[in-house]
Design brief:
5 strands, 11 helices, five-stranded mixed sheet, alpha/beta
Length: about 280
Amino acid sequence: MQNSDRYDISLMCECLNVSRAGFYRFFYAGDSGRKERKASICMRIVSIHASDPLLGAPRITLLLHGEGIQIAQSTVSLYMKELGIAAATTQKRFRPKRSKLPAASSPAIVNRAKNVLISSPDAVWTTDITYIRTKAGWAYLSTIIDQFSRRVIAMRMSYSMASRLCCDTLEDALRERSYPVGVIIHSDKGSQYRSSAFVNLAEKRSVIQSFTSIGHSCDENAAQESFHSTLKRECVRGMVFADLEHAQRVIFRWIGGYYNNSRPHTALGGLTPVAFESTIIGDF
């Protein structure tokens, strides 16, 4: 009942989009000790959810753990269900796509990232292009992600999806990471990544190219596909941007300010990509 002496409970429930019945079920359940703890956790869950309605039980649990509250994800899920709150959107089941590129025409198509043990940054990067709608036409977002920390280390956007877009993104990533030697850059078999411009740039910078295998596509670049899914679900959310500059402002700010620095990542034990790099290897 914290703050009930200052604010009406009905008003607080309405502002936080929680039913009064759900709140009182929490507050009056169990013995006094358990009741107080449950009510406290309940209000914290409601507060977290109100600040970011896209968060579901897994990430809310991680945030609670970060605050020193030990609670199982299943319990958080149960509490959310009883309170009548849920993530604003749900993630669609990943459906792998198959490549139609003939094996005979692509002897250089090899997945060199498949069995690599990634124990440090700049071992394996993944890259891909996704479509962004603007009122002036389709824009194309190219990103590169370090698979050690899931940090987006380079991003470019253009109205053209020619090989120059991918080359510029790779140059940005190399510059950001002080030109590491021998990093594997893994992509699908798109023509941009098989172009002479991109191949020559990779060779010049001592970058090893890796492709999804013949007969495979998205299923062998799942982390990159997952990032694009998260971007569309949590940032773009069906928006049609005014133009390329508008899309860049919104998306680049979301990636740099939120995804890399503030969004807890389940694969990183609840840390953000930047925090994971800083914790594991120090800030570089």
